[in-house]
Specification:
Number of strands: 17
Order of helices and strands: HEHHEEEHHEHEHEEEHEEEHEEEEHE
Distance between the termini: 28 Å
Helix content: 25-40%
Number of helices: 10
Radius of gyration: 19 Å
Shape: elongated
Largest sheet: 7 strands, parallel
């Protein structure tokens, strides 16, 4: 493979994953580690990416102000989402009072939650249906239905949350960046997420690697306000700024 072809392939992979390791590139492109490292140095000097210890990350944030429908988001990065959902579900303990939001990764948790001696609150109509069918005690927020996500939002939802005190909350996110924190394109969902975190002893953001170095319209929390559950391979700058829980695939 010619150098320019390798450069194009590396940048294409990085655009999809946002952060990538030398080991991943070696396996995906069937190229030696020494060649990959030289290519990353060259691309870093050309300001096409940022070389980090053990890999590379996107040079600049990507801005996303539009959200896809839930059914489309559920199909994206599905293997990562299910692994993250499995790990997150394992954190739920006996007697927990848990909030689960309407994120596409959070939806996957329904297949892995086992703790029956916990109480669950959600703004996701679909998730409430699944958990209830599986025999869990579930409460749904009151408020306006956002059709695109089948989620309860609005003043009614925020007001209802003020009565709760959660031991843990699990939230999805559209973008994560050092400067802008946790972001979402929807103002009403942002208000709900902010209020949930205010009333939670422990907050978890569950995000596949595509969400890093992405900024959406509304910041709902600072990057230090929650632990981030993600797949291994996140750049060191994020590890330095927040509590990252890296999960192996």
């Amino acid at each position: 493979m010619l150098a320019q072809e390798r450069f194009t392939a590396i940048l294409s992979i990085l655009k999809e994953k946002k952060t990538v390791t030398v080991t991943e590139l070696t396996k995906l492109l069937d190229i030696s580690e020494s060649t990959i490292r030289r290519d990353l140095i060259a691309l870093d000097k050309a300001e096409k990416l940022r070389k980090i210890h053990g890999g590379a990350t996107l040079l600049q944030k990507e801005y996303k102000t539009v959200e896809n429908d839930l059914i489309l988001r559920e199909r994206e990065h599905i293997d990562e989402k299910r692994r993250l959902a499995q790990y997150a579900a394992s954190l739920i303990e006996e007697h927990d009072f848990v909030y689960l939001d309407a994120g596409s990764t959070i939806m996957q948790m329904a297949d892995f939650i086992e703790e029956k001696d916990a109480v669950y609150v959600t703004n996701s109509l679909e998730l409430a249906k699944q958990l209830s069918s599986n025999g869990f005690q579930v409460y749904v927020l009151a408020g306006e239905v956002k059709a695109k996500a089948m989620a309860i939002v609005g003043i009614g939802a925020v007001s209802a949350l003020q009565k709760y005190n959660f031991t843990k909350c699990f939230l999805g996110v559209n973008g994560i960046s050092i400067d802008n924190g946790f972001t979402t394109p929807d103002m009403q969902e942002a208000h709900v997420k902010t209020e949930v975190m205010r009333h939670s002893k422990k907050s978890y953001i569950i995000a596949d690697r595509s969400k890093f170095n992405v900024c959406s319209s509304i910041t709902f929390a600072d990057i230090m306000d929650a632990s981030i559950i993600t797949i291994q391979g996140i750049s060191q700058e994020y590890k330095d700024e927040t509590n990252i829980i890296e999960v192996a695939m």
